[in-house]
Amino acid sequence: MASDLDPAVVLWSSPVADRAGRPLLVLLHGYGADERDLFGLVPYLPDQFVIAAVRAPLAPPFPSPGYSWYPIEGLEGRDPAHLTAAAESLLRWLDAEAGEGPVGLLGFSQGAAIALQALRLRPGDFAFVVNLSGYAAPGDLSTDAALAERRPPVFWGRGARDEVIPAPLVEHSVQWLPGHVELSGRVYPGLTHSVSEDELHDVRVFLDKQLQALTGA
C-alpha cells in the first residue's frame, strides 16, 4: 500500500467556510515537485472551483528534490501496480477531505498518470480529468468497462518535443483513451515536457465548459 497523503501540507484556494457546494479541482504535481508547483496556476483557473494542491507521498532518491507519486528508477519504473497504489492513496484522501460537490482532477506528468488511474478506479466519482504531459497506464482494470460506458471528459495536452514520457506509453494512451473517455486536447509544436501559455488557454476553455455542464450557467 502506498503512503497516505498528508492533509497538513495541502494548499487550498479557499477557506473551509467558503467551500460548501462548490466543485473541487485537485492539482497533482509531477516528479520532483511539490504542492506549490501547480498551485501557481490558480490565478489562471476559474475561480468558481475550490482548488486543492496535494503533495505526493514519496521522496525520490537523493539528490532529486521534491516528491513523487511512484518510483521510476530501475526495472520497476512506471509499474502500473505502483500507479494503482498511488491512485488509491489519493482516493483515500478524497474520501476524507472532499465535500459533497463534483470533483475534477488536473495533473502534470506523474500527477496526470495518477489522475487517469484514479478515474479508472472510480469512474463515477469524477466529473473530468485534465491530463498534462501524462499517460494512461497499460494493463486492464476491472472498472474499465464502467469507464467506457460513462465516457467522462478528459483533456490531454502534450508537447511535440516531450522526450520524458516514453513513446510506447504515449502510443498506448493514443490508442486506449478514445475508447474509454470523451477525449479532447492538443499536441503543441515545439513544446517539451512543460506547460505553455497556449496550453493554459486551452485548459481554461475546457474547464469553463465543464463548469457550464456542472452548474448549467
Automatic annotation (TrEMBL):
InterPro entries (UniProt xref): AB_hydrolase_fold, LYPA1-2/EST-like, PLipase/COase/thioEstase
Limits of the Phospholipase/carboxylesterase/thioesterase domain: 21-209
UniProt entry keywords in alphabetical sequence: Hydrolase
UniProt GO MF annotations: hydrolase activity
Highest taxon above the source species: Bacteria
Coiled coil start-end: none
Pfam families reported for this sequence: Abhydrolase_2
Family label: Belongs to the AB hydrolase superfamily. AB hydrolase 2 family.
Protein name: Phospholipase/carboxylesterase
Organism whose genome encodes this protein: Microbacterium invictum
